């Protein structure tokens, strides 16, 4: 069974990703998250995909605290 979370967890992702020089669309595609999830906070995304997205953003954006920045 795949664990799911609300896409609302992605709120502010686009701003945070751009602030560290990342392409939002490329990162979402890499993680397997449909781009429309940024506009549909009540939809669901895979928890594993969400974690991949955060880890990738932290690594490629040279920002180890990316997840904390997103949470702010």
Description:
The protein has 72 residues and is mainly α. The chain has four helices and two strands; from the N terminus they run βααβαα. It has a two-stranded antiparallel sheet with strand order 1-2. The longest helix has 14 residues. It is globular. It starts with a strand and ends with a helix. The mean pLDDT is 95.
Blueprint (SSEs and pairs):
Blueprint: E1 4-6, H1 13-19, H2 24-31, E2 44-46, H3 47-60, H4 66-71
Antiparallel strand pairs: 1-2
Helix pairs in contact: 2-3
Alpha-beta classification: mainly alpha
Mean pLDDT over the full residue set: 95
Strand line-up across the major sheet? 1-2
Q: What fraction of the residues are assigned to beta strands by DSSP? A: 5-15%
Structural Rg: 11 Å
Tally of DSSP β-strands:
2
Overall outline: globular
Report the sheet with the most strands, covering strand number, pairing sense and barrel closure: 2 strands, antiparallel
Fraction of residues in helices? 40-55%
Low-confidence stretches: none
Distance linking N and C termini: 30 Å
Total DSSP helices: 4
H/E element string? EHHEHH
Provide a compact summary of the structure:
The protein is mostly helical. Helix content is 49%, strand content 8%. The chain starts with a strand and ends with a helix.
Descriptors for this entry?
mainly alpha; 72 residues; two-stranded antiparallel ribbon
